[in-house]
Amino acid sequence: MWAVGACGGGAEDTSLFPAGYASSYLQVRPRRSSPDHDLNHVLVFADPAAAEPYQMRDHPFPTGAVVLKEEHDLSDDTCSGPIKGWTVMVKLAAGSSAATLDWHWQKVDAGRAVVTDNEPRCYACHTSCGAPPDGYLGTCSAP
Ligand code: HEC
Q: What is the model's pTM?
């Protein structure tokens, strides 16, 4: 997949989350290693709209809700080193994209360039883990 060339002002930023997410999003899960995400150490953040459904698991994610995973090297077991990249899920309107579980999936590199959009591998795996008790509405975290 080709990114659109930079034109008068740096690389295009089409990632689905703001650069300053750490100040407005909530960290919704303790740091852990993720065998499913390329063996990285990961932190999971949710925007204010996603935080409650993600943690409470008793009502749907509103359209536009964002869940984001900050990926660190496996050797970085405190997640204090450089960020390797992000994986992101943004909720789409209910029933609008059954094939992708009504989420938009994105992988973003450390420079915030979009690496993949709606990569089938993402929702294929999340389909299998995204049902209670292991997951919730396409998300895969076990509580
Ligand atoms: C082989 C299975 C697998 C694949 C492929 C996969 N994931 Fe995940 N993902 C998981 C599991 C399991 C978790 C929860 C546990 C963890 O963090 O490892 C998770 C967690 C996440 C989270 C944190 C929210 C949650 O679900 O709890 C996001 C965001 C996410 N994945 C996005 C993506 C994106 C985007 C892709 C594709 C680029 C992707 N995932 C590919 C298995 C997978």
A: 0.89
